[in-house]
Design a protein that fits this description.
Distance between the termini: 27 Å
Low-confidence stretches: 1-16
Strand content: 5-15%
Order of helices and strands: HEHEHEEHEHHEEEHEHEHHEHEH
Strand order of the largest sheet: 1-2-3-5-8-9-10-12
Number of strands: 12
Helix content: 40-55%
Mean pLDDT: 93
């Protein structure tokens, strides 16, 4: 196992928050925490048939175990309600992963709070926290898909107010005090307590942001750590939003929290191998989603541009990906980077190798570059 706390990139050798410790405090200029995200993308067998959802979930457990073994900081699974993604109940998976891992933080990426019950979200994650001995975290968001709204009988016309009110209620529940709340979207609560509580700390709760100032300010209002989903364009263009978050946190009088980003990528032994292995699966996913959303078709030119140092895809050799993460640290001052390592039909074996390289080769190289051991880098 690589010792990521020594390399300065992971810190997972004691990730559970000790009494009084803040697990989402900023890590400082010479460090980046490295994590993984996946939606449980449904792959295909060589004959073209889709891998059953149940098998995808079993493979996810293997991926989480490997991420733990190689010393990565966090493993997150996103909630979706579509045939192309296997994870619809993140906390159930995370509870299973908690029993098979020892150090890695376990969370969602994201939990669609708008279409869920904030009290049940807290209870499920506090249960995962107990099972994992303090390694649970939740990332809250509105999600990039809307299937959960009709599935759970919600009106898309209430998209904004559902998230706003449910976030307000979740924050009151998270405080682990009797809850007093009233709003428009559900009956009022007058002084009820929610169980089980966490043992030593408040539940680490992030807000996932796509890139609007309004979302950034809402996150800062609650004093939560923020994670930017950067899936296109240039990551450095998010610097004004990262700075807005820091300024707003200070304005609201909150203790500073971590700033993180989430981007797709793939690690292999060489740049050419990583790109050739990843491209057809990226293109298939890109065009499938593009057809749903009215985008034009993707191309190799678009892909290659996104793989350059300034692009949003972290695809390449360990050296290339490490240097790109260091550039992200310098441009945005991030405390954490989460790689969305699954992509459509990318095979399980390729994802496992990418996870292994991220922990054993990318993490120590990032630490070396940030330590200043190489002049001019």
């Amino acid at each position: 196992m690589s010792d990521a706390s020594v390399t300065g990139t992971g810190g997972p050798l004691a990730p559970a928050a000790a009494p009084g410790e803040n697990p989402t405090a900023p890590v400082g200029p010479g460090k980046v925490l490295l994590g993984l995200n996946t939606f449980g993308d449904v792959g295909v067998y060589p004959d073209g048939h889709p891998v059953p959802h149940a098998q995808v979930l079993r493979q996810l457990l293997e991926q989480a175990e490997l991420a733990d073994d190689v010393g990565l900081h966090a493993f997150g699974v996103g909630e979706h309600h579509r045939k192309d993604y296997a994870v619809s109940a993140p906390e159930v998976f995370l509870a299973a992963a908690a029993a098979r891992t020892k150090r890695i933080r376990l969370g969602s990426a994201v939990t669609v709070l708008s279409s869920d019950d904030p009290i049940r979200v807290f209870q499920r994650f506090s249960t995962v926290d107990a099972i994992s001995s303090g390694r649970a975290e939740v990332m809250l968001g509105r999600g990039s898909f809307i299937e959960s709204f009709p599935l759970f009988g919600l009106d898309l016309a209430d998209y904004e107010i559902l998230f706003e009110e449910k976030l307000e209620l979740f924050d009151k529940v998270r405080a682990q005090k009797p809850v007093h709340w009233e709003g428009r979207t559900r009956p009022a609560i007058n002084g009820l307590s929610v169980y089980p509580p966490l043992e030593h700390h408040l539940l680490p709760a992030w807000i996932g942001v796509g890139g609007t100032p309004e979302s950034v300010l809402r996150c800062a209002q609650y004093g939560y750590p923020i994670i930017f989903a950067i899936i296109g364009g240039e990551p450095r263009s998010f610097a004004p939003l990262a700075n807005l978050y820091r300024e707003a946190m200070a304005k609201y009088g909150h203790q500073m929290q971590q700033v993180a980003t989430h981007s797709p990528g793939h690690v292999a032994e060489t740049d050419e191998e990583a790109r050739e292995e990843f491209f057809p699966h990226w293109l298939g996913l890109r065009n499938r989603l593009g057809a749903e959303r009215g985008w034009g078709p993707g191309s190799r030119h678009e892909f290659d541009a996104m793989c350059t140092p300034e692009g949003a895809l972290y695809v390449g050799s360990p050296e290339t990906v490490a240097r790109k993460i260091v550039l992200l640290k310098r441009n945005l001052g991030v405390d954490r980077f989460d790689l969305k390592y699954s992509s459509g039909s990318l095979p399980h074996t390729a994802m496992m190798r990418s996870i292994e390289l991220l922990g054993t080769a990318v993490a120590p190289r990032v630490a070396e570059l940030l330590s200043g051991h190489e002049s001019g880098n």
